[in-house]
Input
Amino acid sequence: MANIVEIHNVSKTFGSVRAVEDVSLEIEEGEFMTILGPSGCGKTTTLRMIGGFEYPDRGRVLLGGEDVTDLPPYKRPVNMMFQDFALFPHMTVAQNIGYGLHIAGLSKSDTAKQVDEALRTIELSHKAASRPAELSIGQKQRVALARALVRRPQVLLLDEPMSALDAQLRGAMQVELKHLHEQIGLTFIMVTHDQTEALVMSDRVTVMDQGEIVQIGTPTELYDHPASPYVANFLGTSNILVATVREIISGTIVTDYGPNMIRAAATGKTPAVGARVMLSIRPEKLRLLAQDAIVPEDVNRLEGVISEQFFHGDSVRLSLDIGGDTPLVIHHQLSSSQGQGELPPAGQTVNIAVDPSSVTLFEDIADHEPEYRA
Amino acid sequence: MAIQQAQIANVRRETPNGWHFKWAGFDITGRALAVAAGCVLAFLYIPIVTLIVFSFNSNPITRLPLTGWTFDWYEKAFTNSNLLAALGNSLLIAAAAVVICLAIGVPTAFALDRYQFPGKVFFRRLVLLPITLPGLITGISMLNFFSMMDVSLSLLTVMVGHGTALTAIVVTNVYARLQRFDRRIEEASSDLGARPWQTFIKVTLPNIRNAIIGSSLISFTLSFDEIPVTFFLTGRDNTLPMYIWSTIRRGITPEINAIGSVIVGVSIILLLVSVFIMSDPVKKAGTGR
Amino acid sequence: MNLAQQKRLSFAALMTGPILWWILVLLVPYVIMLMISFYSKQFPFHVPDFQFGNYLKIFDDPQYFQVLLRSLKISVLVSLVTFALAYPLTYYLVFKVRSHRVRMIIYVATIIPLWVSYLLRAYTWKTILGTEGILNSFLMWIGIIDEPISLFLYNQFAMVVTMAYIFTPYMVMPLFASLEKIPRNLIEASKDLGVGRMGTFLRVTLPLSVPGILAGFTFTFCLSFGDFISPQLVGGPYSNMISNVVATQFGIAMNWPLGSALSMIMLFIVVAIITMSDRFERAGRLDLN
Output
């Protein structure tokens, strides 16, 4: 598939702050791409450079193969849904939606027809004559979406589209936006700091940190094979353990973590024996074993003492001391046949198992702050 | 609402030893303050009321007791050709001053809000100086200037003087509005295909319109009322305040009371209109909450 | 052309005119005034020169120095009187009036006189305080006095009353703003901690309203200091203010260099006061979230 958006080696500095540093990104036509990162990571600046609101210090921006770096927003075939929506307060809902068509020189009747249609789609026909101030937040969001989409852009940019919504509405809107994307097949580029949003909605996710891209991949790739402890921790939670390499046996790296031995499946480079490495283990990949359970040879079996239990309704999180620097967190799903009461209480010694393929190993520990915790 | 308030009032009464829940009639400080506040308000309004009352009093000397109703003073005022000429001049000057204030003040406010340029801090101070300095100083500095440039004094110099003295009013009001202005709606407009001038006319202007109209009305009123600058910059022509001033230095006539009452009435109407306009349209709609 | 260049171009298009205007009508006149303040007077006008004689004269000649001191004294008195009037009123409005609507109506009512012709407001006091005036005739009418008292008008008392009347709204506005900003829970907390009404006022409310008091004093002081209309109307022969002396230099005395030097001193005093109050305000600014 063709790339609809290409960003080549783009950098942007605000005063002394480097907002974006040498970022390159390619987005395929029809794709739902999410740029994910904490506030100040440069994700919004990147989006705004695609929209034309920021001019990069270096690098080029291409839309549909054409260099648009020097084009102002009003000459770019993209539309943006702004954070907090930026609806025109002095116009009615209908005027807001029709604004882009009116500017494009559409006749009054054509504009009215398309606005009516859009209003029907977002189920706000009865609010056509209202001002934005009279709308609920959810309604405002739908108007903002309609206003951007009636322009039939090649790419829809979404700047933190859910940040104004409450938790309940957010879940519903995530599904709605995803459906919308599937229906109209338009390229969506969304910026968010919310990892759940990124995982639920996107085809691919770009993770940014301190102005740079850390990793690009599908949600499952990112989740299962994070490129760094930063990604591992930003997407979902992870146990990050600093361990020492003991030996390497045919595709498996054996490490020591306290009294326990943890094996990780080797992917890519193999570290030297004796090296300090970081291990990342998702809490839900750790299985609580029955006292007498037998596990295959190649599965890690660890022993530890339960220090705390946290009840989450449908699941329990156990904090487990396995003798290393950091306690291990286990996500244990409760089922119809097992309630919380049947779990071993705090203070009890238990065995747990985890597949070596679920242990991600990072060679480089120097770069990362020590306090990565689950 | 009313019921809620009543309930709150009940709760308050039941609260023991709450400091601001007092029994009727025992808040002595409150009473004293109310009386003081009333006196200050009276102090502020008695002269204005006096002015209006005596404009209808038949006695040519403004003294008590009142002697009877008359409209003579109004008739006299509005047949006095000098006074009418001065009134015409004042209206003309005020209109011209507003034009200058807007032509200079609105771009200046935009520059202060949106652009970074060398000397901005100095520029801001300079521009705001005329409202902080006594009008006398503005008047004198411009008199020196015009005299050095060999410009003879006329209504034109007064217009320039008023424009200079009052532009800061437009600058501060429009600047304050721009500071609260959500720039993203301009970006949204640009995003939706509008060129910068279209964005300015269709999005920016409607949202700062009230600040512009309001500050125009204020500038108009202040120019209409201006003496310190006019005093130094006017040539042979008089403005209304200058005419009134030259009259009252000679003596008091009820004619001045009459024209004064008219000015008071018109000023208050203009003020109320500008206050109403300047309050936010969104807030005014008020149905959102 | 890229976006950054476009932005620079639009700034130039927007601001070239206004910046030239500001330089021409504001910066240049101030510079000229400064220049002329070093000129020497020579019949019939003045000649270019560079000497400090005008400034020295102001500080040597008791005639000018006395006037300067008197102006400062009167301006301080006016500020004090407006403060004494405005504080109780504003306090009452903010803390005692419960209905927001009523509070805003009374507040606007105290501001309205500002927009009623300044000259007329000064003038009404002449009609009120004069020997033939309303106060005297009222007192005689009700029989308290037999002869009109000339003590009311044409003295410093009349000046202070008139200017205090004119400038009280300028004290009310900043006081109101600063008192309204004080979080109620601070005052409640103080009372909750067992501090009495007076203690709470002195230790919480008053200190927190200092920014408003400072701003109010600055406004009223600078305005009184620059006023030459009211002194001339109600002040009488021995109440000349510095601004009157300045005005005279450009009128009958025809000594522009001296007048310009006096103006420069006024300008310096006003700017110094504004800068100082700004500094104090910033230094003492507390974060009241």
The longest strand of chain A covers residues 3-14. Residues 237-372 of chain A form a domain with the OB fold (Dihydrolipoamide Acetyltransferase, E2P) fold (CATH 2.40.50.100). Residues 167-184 of chain A form the longest helix (18 residues).
